[in-house]
Amino acid sequence: xxxxxxxxxxxxxxxxxxxxxxxxxxxxxxxxxxxxxxxxxxxxxxxxxxxxxxxxxxxxxxxxxxxxxxxxxxxxxxxxxxxxxxxxxxxxxxxxxxxxxxxxxxxxxxxxxxxxxxxxxxxxxxxxxxxxxxxxxxxxxxxxxxxxxxxxxxxxxxxxxxxxxxxxxxxxxxxxxxxxxxxxxxxxxxxxxxxxxxxxxxxxxxxxxxxxxxxxxxxxxxxxxxxxxxxxxxxxxxxxxxxxxxxxxxxxxxxxxxxxxxxxxxxxxxxxxxxxxxxxxxxxxxxxxxxxxxxxxxxxxxxxxxxxxxxxxxxxxxxxxxxxxxxxxxxxxxxxxxxxxxxxxxxxxxxxxxxxxxxxxxxxxxxxxxxxxxxxxxxxxxxxxxxxxxxxxxxxxxxxxxxxxxxxxxxxxxxxxxxxxxxxxxxxxxxxxxxxxxxxxxxxxxxxxxxxxxxxxxxxxxxxxxxxxxxxxxxxxxxxxxxxxxxxxxxxxxxxxxxxxxxxxxxx
Length: 508
Prior knowledge:
InterPro entries: Ketoacyl_synth_AS, Ketoacyl_synth_C, Ketoacyl_synth_N, PKS_assoc, PKS_Beta-ketoAc_synthase_dom, PKS_NRPS_Biosynth_Enz, Thiolase-like. By secondary structure, the protein is α/β, with parallel strands linked by helices. It has helices spanning 22-30, 41-48, 74-77, 81-85, 89-104, 126-132, 136-150, 155-163, 178-191, 251-256, 285-299, 319-331, 347-350, 357-371, 453-468, 476-484, 500-507; strands at 7-15, 37-38, 59-60, 62-63, 116-122, 169-171, 197-204, 213-214, 242-250, 263-272, 308-310, 341-344, 373-374, 394-396, 401-402, 410-416, 421-428, 444-450, 491-497.
């Protein structure tokens, strides 16, 4: 794909097990941390309301826990307490993460300067099933509102409405591949000039996340609560909750606007297995190989230029060998090299985030190509004997690895949905941009705001911490983003400073 059809990743927002934002997520990844929680008796009894569950021999006391799913700043978005009470936490979190992602990108929707689209998917509303449906008082009085705040159809349009985003807005559903398919659809919309900015991603929140799960032989879930992708001991994955959104723009627009480009999407593809597999829920070598090869063709890159693949990597005895076989088939079209491409799976860190799984892997890959480091894939000791790594282009990246070499850092990201919808995206390190002479000016006016005095105070503390760690020479870029890339609320503060340390002290 030529630069005029490449897409820039300019912002991101994330909630994942063990991580309140994308930076915490990255730090956990590079430290090789498994963020799967081990559940105690009190957690399990509270989730199931039945002490006898503890005696089940098949109970697995593990889950990828998302903190604070009961919290929501309803007033910020103009919702009443009752509306917040009946709103699915997936929709609540998506609203908050959307604001954070747009702020990370320096995009202020209130400016009206760009047409912004929303492309995302969410999981089934467990909140509706377990907390609202049994409440006959709520269901009889607020049935219509409950539908609007819990039905998948309205997840994207709630964001568009509340943030006044006027581009295409659609909820996408392809099971586990939902959020990566959403990235693909967002890229297409940008390239068709249906929008200038796009939010893409997804959410899955299990409201009974402290309940663990019952192991069943032949199912996709692990008997011991660990995901060992590509390992000889791999027996399944672990469920988890997460929310992720990225902000995308046409690369040419991002360069023109001076955006901080995190990575470049060179190409993407989506297909379906059709009937070429043993059953509806089974994976297909042909389908997966086809989507990987098609993405490489769209991107205009050879397989041997790809240094890392963020795999679907569920850690199942059936799925892992099929995935490596499919990747090998796709790569062998253009290269005969062996053992040059690292392979990993974020599911070994945070579990399987269902509809949000693809965006978690995508954000991991974006940060890897941006920072030149490949995080370790956990729990890999011996390769699955059904996988012929020795004659393949791949090796499992079991330790933190510096990403060096003369080629641009380039990664593939895969996500495969039950039912056969497959997605693959090629991402590349951001282009080097010469700093503008004005951007290293000594002084900057740093502004921040909030919808209340308390919120403003918290914003000051956050900004102080951020700029105190700022190592750049001048503050003009920071000042410009704060002035033009943030919505300005009623309560405001400003400081004038010439370096990050001075600004941090003035704001604190």
